[in-house]
């Protein structure tokens, strides 16, 4: 039964991956889906490190970028006909190079977890990013290197000139990578990674080398990050220094953390959410990075286990059939909270507005009129007041929904 | 040759002392809370921008006094209402919080001040050559930077070792519970130290802004190097941070001023490579070229061979 249930989750995942471009087939949608596919693999590989293995890395983009650079070099080899293979294997090439880089760097960086590991990863990230501007032959300097994915033999007549064809190829790799990363957790070494994360001393006492366990997780994570890099190279057909620097490393940390570390599905949620924010929100406002920063800080402060953790919080209430009792209190707190945030966003946009009028939520606001500011401030204050007033009720409802009566214990 | 050496040393000392101002606050905060403050360089940038805005209306000297205070108060508030809350979720969450904070501060600065470089000027009164050596001038402003940094170092040393507050702070680092039992408000001390550390970073920003240019990327430029210093010096060791700051400052300054490269090294061994070799980039490397990555190279070597850093305590 449980096996059937687990299988159905995977079938649903595959179906979702394959059906998405049927539902939304605009050029923009396909390009967003491609970004999502790359982000999902990358974020999952990061979670392997931090969520499963307890290694906080500030240089994970190194493996992503290295994989990507080698993948573009492979594309160039196809172009000059020094090699002959179908481009469906490009992500694997990226992955293998990511693995190679991880084996080399992991051999000394996984000796310790915690701050030492974080600092080494930061140092290596900066080192590689700086070197990429020095070694122009391999990295192409600031302009990066570019290839063309239409060379090489076709795959059953598909030449991958269209973005949607690349999407189906990418979704195949995403599915395979997700399955293998999930299976990795189920293996003894995946379980030991959790043990080493929680208590390395105990893990050593039962006969495992914490360093060895960390090393294996690190290498596996490098492999999948490289696959993501290969997918990136296939999708964009170019790669630059920007793809292996600290900003990219930071973005993957953001994704995994907002989604929820420690839950397998967390990074997937985070990757989807951030890609959507990145591509859709940036159409509406140039301040989206500011909102992203605020969202990130609020997540760390109030949802330390991310969105996945927030969903999982309701498991007990769900099992006990008490979820219905939470709907009204949630609405009572949620509606004023959303109004508060929306009015705050309007205020921020007003401060930033340079033109005579600001179009937001279908309204036209005048930044010069004092009345606009006063009205928005009043709404924000009232909404904040409403949120704070309704919080105790929500807390009480939460406690009753999760309270297990003594006779059931 | 001698003139290059002397000026490289002077510039290295200026950079090193500036780095120390940042590293001092970071080290204090680390030894107290056990968390590396990723946003530390962002407070430095905030200091520069605040001082720039103040200097437009009230002049440089008011900015020098007020901007660090503003930054320090902001830092204390962030500790009180942000970091303290996150503290319950563990060290990784704290580190990630400060990481997000750095991101948010950079975005906020772009929001309030825009993306362009600000024309933040050093005061006219310091706009003369302090001395001229081998035909090169050493500006008075750089001398002023050295004076401020040394003053801060002496002041910090005095406060931490010779005053009652300093002794309580030192005790709170090693024995927070005992200090609390003696009736001191330890969370308040934490907040104060965080505020003071960020204020120091802000002060560094105020005096560095006119020299190193005030732009939204200035935190990124210095941020990771300050980390390198704190780790090389030994986490939590103020003296180690001082030595490492000067070391890194001088190392970078000498590397930039030198004109040796791989080619010279190979010539010593009598090896010669053609210029169209695939690894030509490697043979053509020069020391000034790799100056930006030297600190990181040093960091990795230190972490591999001496993870406690130069003056860090023995690891448990």
Structural account:
The complex is a heterodimer of chains A (409) and B (316). Chain A is 74% helix and 2% strand. With 409 residues, chain A is mostly helical. Chain A folds into two domains: 10-301, ABC transporter involved in vitamin B12 uptake, BtuC; 315-408. In chain A, a hairpin with a 2-residue loop joins strand 3 and strand 4. With 316 residues, chain B is an all-alpha fold. Chain B has 14 helices and two strands. In chain B, strand 1 (129-133) and strand 2 form a beta hairpin. Chain B has a two-stranded antiparallel ribbon. In chain B, helix 1 (2-33) runs parallel beside helix 5 (140-162), helix 1 (2-33) packs antiparallel against helix 8 and helix 2 (40-58) runs antiparallel to helix 3.
Rg calc of chain A: 24 Å
How many DSSP E strands of chain B?
A: 2
Number of helices of chain A: 17
Main beta-sheet annotation of chain A: 2 strands, antiparallel
Query: What general form of chain A does the structure show?
Result: globular
Work out the number of β strands of chain A.
4
Our count of helices of chain B gives 14
Q: For the report, how would you describe the main beta sheet of chain B?
A: 2 strands, antiparallel
Structural domain count of chain A: 2
Gist of the model:
The complex is a heterodimer of chains A (409) and B (316). Chain A is mainly alpha-helical and 409 residues long. Chain A is built from 17 helices and four strands.
List strands and helices in order, with pairings.
The complex is a heterodimer of chains A (409) and B (316).
Chain A: H1 2-23, H2 27-52, H3 61-79, H4 90-109, H5 114-134, H6 136-139, E1 145-146, H7 163-186, H8 188-198, H9 200-205, H10 210-236, E2 238-239, H11 246-259, H12 266-284, H13 288-302, H14 306-312, H15 315-319, H16 323-352, E3 358-360, E4 363-365, H17 370-402
Antiparallel strand pairs in A: 1-2, 3-4
Helix pairs in contact in A: 1-7, 2-7, 2-10, 2-11, 2-12, 3-4, 3-10, 4-10, 7-10, 8-10, 11-12, 11-14, 16-17
Chain B: H1 2-33, H2 40-58, H3 60-86, H4 91-113, E1 129-133, E2 136-139, H5 140-162, H6 164-174, H7 176-181, H8 186-212, H9 218-233, H10 238-257, H11 262-268, H12 280-283, H13 287-290, H14 294-305
Helix pairs in contact in B: 1-5, 1-8, 1-9, 1-10, 2-3, 2-4, 2-8, 2-9, 3-8, 5-6, 9-10, 9-14
